[in-house]
């Protein structure tokens, strides 16, 4: 990991053995120092640690461990008020969260939940949205919502579809609408059938999309609620001939562009 303070003319080596894409800059209003860097790095024994340092002095002696003990490789995430890490011992995995840089607490899911994988969806407005894959799920995740500290979770939507990308990346078919807080679109898969659902209140209630009355050529659409709804391609399109997914922008609140049927 290198840093430059003169627009890239000169580069200073901060640390070696840093995990790719697990480096996070100081968060304004949460971290005390604007020059702080959060990172996941490998120690001499081959294990991984969550550490921070200041870019002016990031030698081994000046690195501060922020989590007691080793963490799973590729598990550090610093986002808004929250820091997330994962620790696996034997075949048991525990997920931890730190709220506003306080001590780490184990994340608490309902008793019946046995997480195989957890993906953070959103950390807006002091609340964590995450997708959790149960032991029995293969191509779907359940959506959970937290309290303000990110510790306690309750389920808000079941069976949101997912796909595995190259390099083991997982895509969850849920989209946060930009420009309007609390609005999410999700594609729910039940018995092989995919239905697009929308929430306007941050997951408390979900409903299907009302279909348009005419198609793009102005011809009437024979799609009547409640037997028929509009379905959108959110993160990816199953059909290679369909162009684009859903687009939203902070600078255009309320405007959603998408392709679907």
Automatic annotation (TrEMBL):
<dbReference type="InterPro" id="IPR031778">
    <property type="entry name" value="Sortilin_N"/>
</dbReference>
<dbReference type="Pfam" id="PF15902">
    <property type="entry name" value="Sortilin-Vps10"/>
</dbReference>
<keyword id="KW-0675">Receptor</keyword>
<dbReference type="InterPro" id="IPR006581">
    <property type="entry name" value="VPS10"/>
</dbReference>
<keyword id="KW-0677">Repeat</keyword>
<protein>
    <submittedName>
        <fullName>VPS10 domain-containing receptor SorCS2</fullName>
    </submittedName>
</protein>
<feature type="domain" description="VPS10">
    <location>
        <begin position="1"/>
        <end position="261"/>
    </location>
</feature>
<keyword id="KW-0325">Glycoprotein</keyword>
<dbReference type="InterPro" id="IPR050310">
    <property type="entry name" value="VPS10-sortilin"/>
</dbReference>
């Amino acid at each position: 990991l290198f840093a430059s303070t003169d627009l890239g003319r000169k580069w200073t080596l901060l640390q070696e053995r840093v995990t790719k894409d697990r480096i996070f800059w100081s968060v304004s209003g949460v971290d005390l120092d604007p020059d702080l860097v959060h990172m996941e790095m490998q120690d001499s024994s081959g294990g991984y640690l969550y550490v921070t340092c200041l870019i002016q002095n990031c030698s081994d002696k000046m690195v501060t461990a922020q989590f007691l003990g080793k963490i799973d490789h590729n598990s550090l995430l610093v986002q808004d008020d929250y820091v997330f890490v994962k620790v696996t011992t034997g075949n048991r995995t525990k997920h931890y969260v730190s709220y506003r840089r306080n001590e780490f607490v184990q994340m608490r899911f309902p008793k019946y939940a046995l997480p195989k994988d957890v993906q953070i969806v959103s950390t807006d407005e002091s609340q964590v949205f995450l997708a959790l894959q149960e032991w029995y799920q293969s191509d779907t995740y359940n959506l959970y919502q937290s309290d303000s500290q990110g510790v306690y979770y309750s389920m808000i939507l079941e069976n949101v579809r997912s796909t595995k990308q190259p390099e083991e990346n997982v895509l969850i078919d849920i989209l946060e609408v930009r420009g309007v807080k609390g609005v999410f679109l999700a594609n729910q898969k039940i018995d092989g059938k995919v239905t697009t659902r929308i929430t306007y209140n941050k997951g408390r209630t979900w409903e299907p999309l009302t279909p348009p009355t005419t198609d793009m050529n102005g011809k009437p659409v024979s799609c009547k609620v409640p037997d028929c709804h509009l379905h959108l391609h959110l993160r990816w399109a199953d059909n290679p001939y369909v162009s684009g997914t859903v687009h939203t922008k902070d600078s255009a609140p309320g405007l959603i562009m998408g392709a679907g049927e």
